[in-house]
Amino acid sequence: MKVKVISRSTEEFTRERSQDLQRVFRNYDPALRPQEKAVEYARAVNAAKLEKIFARPFVGAMDGHADGVSCMAKNPNHLKGIFSASMDGDIRLWDMASRRTVCQYPGHKGAVRGLTVSTDGTILISCGTDCTVRLWSVPIAGAGESEDSSRNVSKPLIVYAWKHAFWAVDHQWNGNVFATAGAQVDIWDHNRSEPLNTFGWGNETSVSVRFNPAEPNLLATSASDRSIVIYDLRMSSPARKLIMKTKTNSIAWNPMEPMNFTAANEDCNCYSYDARKLDEAKCVHQDHVSAVMDIDYSPTGREFVTGSYDRTVRIFQYNGGRSREIYHTKRMQRVFCVKYSCDGTYLISGSDDTNLRLWKAKASEQLGVVLPRERKKQEYLDAVKDRYKHLPEVNRIVRHRHLPKPIYKAANLRRTIIEAERTKEKRRKAHSAPGSISAQSYRKRRIIREVE
Amino acid sequence: MRGYGADLESLKDKKLKGQLSVKEQLYGQSAKAAAKTEKWIMPTEGGSLVAEGLEKTWRMKQEDIISEVDILSSRKACDISLRVLGPYTLVYTLNGRNMLMAGRKGELATIDMLTMNLIKNFQVKETVRDVVFLQDGQTFAAAQKKYVYIYNRDGTEIHCLKEHEAPQSLQYLEKHFLLSSINKYGQLHYQDVSTGEMVANYRTGLGGARAMRTNTFNAVIGLGHPGGKVTMWKPTSVKPLVSMLCHHGPVTAMAFHTDGRLMATAGMDRKIKLWDLRKYQVLRSFAGHARTLDFSQRGLLAVGNGSFVDIWRDSGGDQSFMDRYMNHSMVKGYQVGRVRFRPYEDVLGIGHSNGISSVLVPGSGEPNFDSWVANPYETRQQRREKEVRALLDKLQPETIMLDPGRIGTVRPTRATEAEEEDVAEVEKEAAIAAAKASALKHKTKGRNKPSKMLKKKQEGIERVKRSFMELPPERESKKLKKTEEVELPRSLQRFAKKKSS
């Protein structure tokens, strides 16, 4: 007869020297783990609570401007720096790590309306209400970090004067050309003092302009006649025009899905469109209670940040109808511009109270070097929380945010109004002949028409 | 992520549902991949006893097995003979590392089974009826004559739990940190040993249970009562979850299979029954007495009776056909008090009237342990870390339920309730409309005054509305009262409840 008994030798299962790691043996049989679902659920609740405990999104404020911050620009070649310009014509380059001004560029006589950096990161282009476009040279990354070069003051490389005030400027992602928005959309080259080309459709001023990240000849502008126009540089006439019910303040292209862009609108919503099919919005992002002033996408293309006139900054998922996160401070007044940092970890918001504020994109993230075990633990906690976040107990904790009272009340009011309108519509439809009133989806409702 | 999938049916948000179902699919795939790698990462093979030719496995004696097996394993079969302090009962820790033996007349001893060292031996000079290990394998609770006492590793009495009076059996739920006891009056107590609060205190009403076991699958406590009933309890309900009449006489022993689907009970009516816990029906019934029962990790059933221990094994795979696997007879005169399989080893511990014996039972233990569930080679640091993690993951007593997969699901009754209400409303409105539309008979000879016709119509509508109300009209309640009075026979009328007039 054959007999075999479990026999384990202690040497195989324990470590030899005290400097070795402990040996770990795994058996994934679920029978060894009773009530695992309850344990995971308990961990999800605890993970949600811990996330709230560690949520400290505000990193710091950059103080220095004398008037409200009107626009900002990121340098794609330098992670740590950000340019900002204010309503009194003061342009500064900040070092985000020390939150100090590295370089100042005085010169503009009125408000600076647009800032952008060229593709190679060496030239800063600014435009303002004093009808000038100025090109400045950007200091090289290493030189900007020594202490004595703070309060560095530069002269512009060149100043181009033109006929009308400018409202926005943007540079091609991969090229030599930049576009300004004003009474018309002008296309400039660095070395020419006159625009290469001028686009205009209708008599209205263009308020913002953005080049497409993947297609260098495509750009989108928004005008004060409530329209969004897409231009192609190779054609002499504009490509498409979309007229909405309210004005769009800013547009941002999704860097990972370059055919989609999101427009920040005056009616407190952001609308994501597919540039190929403009008759219906892909997604409507609702949550702000006042006009959305600026929008910027994360380099991952999965999230975007919006700053609004209601003194809050919100982060949305690229396909989410509601915001994932809201940041507010008592001292932060109307937010005029927001930027996502180039590594996707921070947001910078520039507001009316002359400060730029640095926030974390994930409020409870641990910054700095994270050990592999810590990182794995955090990933596990995120995954287990995501698994159960649709259940009421976990959802209540994950969704909870403190809102300032005016915003809370304004949001309630908006909700009541929208609900009332919806009920009215439903009743009208119910009491009218079937088929006489057609339901219009919310994504289409805000569009008046599309024009070729 | 190893638990069952999250319940997505209750979700109305289609986008979120889509995202979560994609993730759940991913988890399912990774679980399948983990199962495939099993044969490469499992270091140990299980035990087995294969009969060759005309031999039968149940004729194999321990001496034969010991002679065939290697030295380390043969050392695991041992006999500890202590005659003085009464019949002995034993319990192992969850990782099979430590064993605690308790003599009825008051002896307590903890032994480290890996090194066969005696950790601590002391006398309490009182009857000790039952013992359990608590959260780490070092603290333990003893059900003594009057109260339950908790001792630490060095034998120091840490706590005296006075609310448990005259306890007979103890059970410990590890994930919930709940210590529960039953006494001879049938009072079931649940106490949280991490915070010290008494969670529940129930009178079973069925007398003191001699058999008390935990179903490890769902943390439900099963009690076997002297009336033949087996009840299953959870700490948050006054009534038992399940109450089944199992035997014609008192239930003497019971055991739960590790997967929670099988229960073995033995009664004084000379029957040992195997129950299916999904349908609550008898699967198999054997004849025989049993003083004690235990299931091993691999599904072997040990039956202790008199001075014999029988071990049964299911050869069909679905526990419907159990045949005799092994048999161990002790020295005549030794009465077997308790049998317990040692986790992760092929060893069966027998507590009898003269001490403790361990016998080798090939194929009873799970050969491959998971270090993060139960590690027999735990170091002190790992043990401490494990205790802290267990406290962080402690489950609340409300999570104990018969079907543990129901956690994380949402009760869908609201929708159906609303639907029923809607349906009832529609019916009501239809009935009222019909009543309003009904034409009254046109009476002659001046009896169809408009006011009277209107009143009759209103009465008809009221009647219809009343029939949909929940409370019955007053006439019906008066009738009920009259019938109550009539029911009592005349001789007992004076004991009838007096009407408050």
TrEMBL record, chain A:
One cellular-component annotation, GO: small-subunit processome
Keywords: Nucleus, Repeat, Ribonucleoprotein, WD repeat
Record PROSITE patterns: WD_REPEATS_1, WD_REPEATS_2, WD_REPEATS_REGION
Domain Sof1-like protein: from-to ranges: 361-447
Any single GO BP term: protein ubiquitination
WD repeat coordinates: 62-104, 105-138, 285-326, 328-369
Superkingdom field: Eukaryota
Subcellular location: Nucleus, Nucleolus
InterPro entries linked: Sof1, WD40/YVTN_repeat-like_dom_sf, WD40_PAC1, WD40_repeat_CS, WD40_repeat_dom_sf, WD40_rpt, WD_repeat_DCAF13/WDSOF1
Pfam families membership: Sof1, WD40
Family the UniProt entry places it in: Belongs to the WD repeat DCAF13/WDSOF1 family.
Name of the protein this chain belongs to: DDB1- and CUL4-associated factor 13
Organism the protein comes from: Spirodela intermedia (Intermediate duckweed)
TrEMBL record, chain B:
Repeat found in the keyword field: yes
Residue numbers spanned by region Disordered: 439-485
One of the record's GO cellular component terms: 90S preribosome
Keyword annotations from UniProtKB, A to Z: Nucleus, Repeat, rRNA processing, WD repeat
Residue windows of the WD repeats: 244-285
Repeat as UniProt keyword: yes
Comp. bias intervals (Basic residues): 439-455
Record InterPro entries: BING4_C_dom (IPR012952), WD40/YVTN_repeat-like_dom_sf (IPR015943), WD40_repeat_CS (IPR019775), WD40_repeat_dom_sf (IPR036322), WD40_rpt (IPR001680), WDR46/Utp7 (IPR040315)
Pfam families: BING4CT, WD40
Principal location: nucleus
Annotated localization: Nucleus, Nucleolus
Domain BING4 C-terminal per the UniProt entry, residue ranges: 324-404
GO biological process: maturation of SSU-rRNA from tricistronic rRNA transcript (SSU-rRNA, 5.8S rRNA, LSU-rRNA)
Composition skew (Basic and acidic residues), residue ranges: 456-485
Name of this chain's protein: BING4 C-terminal domain-containing protein
Organism: Spirodela intermedia
Lineage: Eukaryota, Viridiplantae, Streptophyta, Embryophyta, Tracheophyta
